[in-house]
Amino acid sequence: MTLARPVFFVSDGTGITAETLGNTLLTQFDGLEFDKTTLPFVNTAERAKNTVDYINFVGQQTGHRPLVFSTTVSDEVRTMLRQVDGLFMDLFDLFIHEMERELKLGSTHAQGRAHGVADRRRYDERIEAVHYAMEHDDGASTRDLTRADLILIAPSRCGKTPTSMYLALQHGLYSTNFPLTVDDLEQLRLPLALKGLEARCFGLTSDPERLAQVRSERRPGSRYASLEQCAYELRQAEQLYRRRGIPYVNSASMSIEEIATVVLQEKHLRKHGYPGA
């Protein structure tokens, strides 16, 4: 059996940026298997040397040259990491020097700024937004709804909760969500708590087959999960959205990140506390 190609995401911080960069590039190569490992907080020469030794060991064991995606700001650490017996790609190597020349300003070489607490105010805003999203998840609370930047509405299991949480955590938006119940859908009405807040609403829909599959994981064999019921609820939801002039998107084949991006664009929402690249 052929072993998967080893891939390493190396960072002097959390590794989130290296993962995002590397995974984005890897999606362009079909038919290959990758064994991915994240190595965070490689922020000293000693740790860099140990990292190189480990990556080289894995490469020898698998018989494949590792791919190494790096986001390390220290020149000393990067110099050590370049000794790896594999393809080494560092975000700062590729861009920071060009930016310094263009901006006529030296970079700070400060570690951990992208996903650390470099800006306490913005960090606190994101955490407060998460608390708000959790309190108001699935219509659990109607307190202080006028504070909401966004209200997601949809039949059950169309992706409201994960999208709300993502918008809160990643973009600092006060996002809440409400389910459209069978009674709401039969009468083509919004939940009563949303009266006067229609302009803040955004709808989600799905494909009947996909929705039935997702619901069957929770309540197999139920009417709730039947294809007929799912198709009915989705038809009614879309009719409600059109009647009330509420923008909506079909989330069936979209990632949470893609749904969130569409919502931000359609509602012209500003990212309040976005943590950075």
From TrEMBL:
Catalytic activity: [pyruvate, water dikinase]-phosphate + phosphate + H(+) = [pyruvate, water dikinase] + diphosphate; [pyruvate, water dikinase] + ADP = [pyruvate, water dikinase]-phosphate + AMP + H(+)
E.C. designation(s): 2.7.11.33, 2.7.4.28
Enzyme class name: transferase
Domain of life: Bacteria
Listed transmembrane segments: none
This protein's UniProt keywords: Kinase, Nucleotide-binding, Serine/threonine-protein kinase, Transferase
Signal peptide interval: none
Function: Bifunctional serine/threonine kinase and phosphorylase involved in the regulation of the phosphoenolpyruvate synthase (PEPS) by catalyzing its phosphorylation/dephosphorylation.
Family classification: Belongs to the pyruvate, phosphate/water dikinase regulatory protein family. PSRP subfamily.
Protein name according to UniProt: Putative phosphoenolpyruvate synthase regulatory protein
